[in-house]
Every structure is written in structure tokens, then in C-alpha cells.
Design goal:
The chain is an alpha+beta fold. Helix 8 runs parallel beside helix 9. The longest helix is centred in the middle third of the chain and has 25 residues. It starts with 18 loop residues before the first helix and ends with a strand.
């Protein structure tokens, strides 16, 4: 019998979702997990109906991804949940990252964290050699989980991470370093231009240095972001 992941572990399930996690999940998670458990649906089965990967579907259930109108329509039919209810609960933008404690306490999730601890710099070195200076996106990104069984009958978990590569350029850092410090209208602020490239992380770090450098008053400080499309 296949195992079905639920919120409370009451069904045939791996008990990986604790009570303390429930309070951090959106209302849609409770609605969808309840329906999923009642219908004894696996993420694999739902993914086939949504034409998405299993991990992408699971992310929708945990409130870590945004559902399209088509996703909501299909979920309503698959789960037997009123479309209006799902539309209301899945409206807006995900509040990502709240479900995970750092470092993670759940053993399986901790092992993933441990992989990055052990191999993080090794990944970085190899990626830099292959792609140059930059980062792998976690937004323009896809991932999947597969199961392999070797000739001795041992099961192996295969996790694939696929992210778009963004090259770090001196100009992106320079945007923050050359940011205009404005003291007009009785406020202090920094204006940042960005083309929505994930390397904005580096710009934010540079901006923090500017804040410290100019000792701007945090109570009257503002940051203005402009999008620049090239």
C-alpha cells in the first residue's frame, strides 16, 4: 500500500509534519491536505492531473508556490473542494520560508541541510569552474525526486536541482555602490535600480554598507527600487 503524506499523520503516512508546523501553514494547506487524505491521493497522482512535478504540487500544498487559475480549477475537481474556497485561500502571493526552522529539526529535512553544509563549497567550486562567477537561481528553478533500486534491492533517492545561471557582473554591484543618497523632503534614502536579476542580493549587501557609512536614521530611512528592463 502506498504511503500518503498528510498533515496529522493519521492516515497511512510518514509522520513528517508536526503539530507545531500546522500553525505556520496557510488555510489552504489544511483544506487541501484534508481532502487529499480523504481521497487517499498521493502527490504523484495529483501531479499527473495538474501536469506538474510532484515537488511543485507539494509546494502548492505547503503554501510555498503560487497556484494559477488552471491549477485551482484542476485541484477543485481532483480534491472535490469548492473552487471558490480554493480561489479565496490561494489568492495573493506565497509567504515563503516560514515552514522551516534553521537549522531544521525534522531529520529528513536536516539531512538536506547537512548536504549543503558538507558539499556547499564543493558545489560552488565546480559551478564556478563551469559557469564563472554568479549564482544558480532558486526562482527560475525546477526540482524533482526519483526513486532508484540497485541490483541488490537497495533503494536510492535521486534529487535533481535545475536552476537558471545568473552571471555576477561588476555593474550590478555598482548600481548599489553608486546609489544616490537623498536627503530631500526631510528623509534619508537610497535609490536602487534593478533588472530583477537575483544578483540583487549582492546589491542589498552593498546598500547595507551605505546605510552604515552614512549613518542614516532608520526611522526616516526609505529604499526606492526601480525596475530597469534591458
Amino acid at each position: 500500500m502506498s504511503q500518503i503524506a498528510t498533515l496529522d499523520g493519521s492516515s497511512v503516512t510518514n509522520k513528517h509534519v508536526k503539530t507545531s508546523l500546522k500553525s505556520r501553514l496557510p488555510a489552504s494547506a489544511h483544506t487541501m491536505f484534508t481532502a487529499k487524505a480523504e481521497k487517499k491521493l498521493s502527490f504523484e497522482a495529483i501531479a499527473k492531473e495538474l501536469d506538474r512535478s510532484e515537488v511543485a504540487v507539494a509546494a502548492l500544498f505547503y503554501g510555498q508556490a503560487r497556484a494559477s487559475e488552471e491549477d485551482i480549477q484542476r485541484l477543485s475537481k481532483i480534491l472535490g473542494v469548492d473552487e471558490g474556497t480554493l480561489t479565496k485561500e490561494l489568492a495573493g502571493f506565497p509567504d515563503r520560508g516560514r515552514t522551516i526552522d534553521m537549522p531544521p529539526k525534522e531529520p529528513l529535512i536536516y539531512r538536506l541541510f547537512e548536504i549543503v553544509q558538507n558539499y556547499g563549497y564543493a558545489y560552488k567550486a565546480v559551478l564556478n569552474e563551469k559557469f564563472g562567477d554568479g549564482i544558480m537561481s532558486a526562482i527560475s528553478f525546477s526540482t524533482k525526486v526519483e526513486k532508484e533500486t540497485d541490483k541488490d534491492g537497495n533503494n536510492w533517492a535521486v534529487i535533481t536541482l535545475r536552476g537558471k545561471w545568473y552571471v555576477q557582473s561588476s555593474s550590478s554591484v555598482g548600481m548599489a555602490l553608486a546609489s544616490r543618497v537623498s536627503r530631500g523632503r526631510g528623509r534619508s534614502g537610497i535609490q536602487i535600480g534593478t533588472n530583477m536579476n537575483p544578483t540583487l542580493t549582492y546589491d542589498v549587501q552593498a546598500t547595507i554598507h551605505e546605510i552604515l557609512k552614512y549613518q542614516l536614521d532608520p526611522q526616516t530611512f526609505y529604499v526606492e527600487t526601480k525596475s530597469q528592463y534591458r
